[in-house]
Amino acid sequence: MPIKSYQMSFQGEVLERGFWLYVWEIVSGNNRYFYIGRTGDSSSAHAASPFNRIGQHLDFRANAKGNSLAKRLKEVGVNPRTSNFRMLALGPFFPEQMTFDKHKPFRDQMATYEYELANFLKTEGCIILGSHHIGIVVDNDILIGVKSQVLNFISRP
């Protein structure tokens, strides 16, 4: 029996910790889904790299933590093992902070970028997995740049 092989490539910069925004594209059969996420924990001062989040998001064990993408895929009946995945990572917007008090304002900004981007993609006809919550007012020029990069990402195969 021949052994199957698969390839994965990434830029080393995605190993950097900090506050990132990312967009997953999941293609399953004729369906195309998107998942919008961010780094910057809600309950601690940690802000992981997007590369770190890949493994957490796709951990399908029953006792897994931080695997909200896996849960959303299960909710809509998508088999991840027969799907194709792409991810766009944007950032880091801000460096990881040493205390939770310093972390919270950056986390709240990232939550708003995440929310605004999810709503924008819905208006573009995209199927968005999960829910998103607004944090605080953010820089509109940055948001315009984020939307532009994401539109470029979703418009190419």
Give descriptors for this structure.
about 160 residues, globular, alpha+beta, single chain
Structural class: alpha+beta
Strand arrangement within the widest β-sheet reads: 3-1-2-4
Averaged pLDDT: 92
Which range best describes the helical content: under 10%, 10-25%, 25-40%, 40-55%, 55-70% or over 70%? 25-40%
User: Would you list the SSEs in sequence order as H and E?
Assistant: EEHHEHEH
Task: Describe this protein's structure.
- With 157 residues, this protein is of the alpha+beta class.
- The chain has one domain.
- It has four helices and four strands.
- A four-stranded mixed β-sheet has the order 3-1-2-4.
- A hairpin with a 2-residue loop joins strand 1 and strand 2.
- Helix 3 packs across helix 4.
- The protein is globular, with a radius of gyration of 16 Å.
- 25% of the residues are buried.
- The model has no long low-confidence stretch (mean pLDDT 92).
Short account of what is shown:
With 157 residues, this protein is α+β, with helices and mostly antiparallel strands.
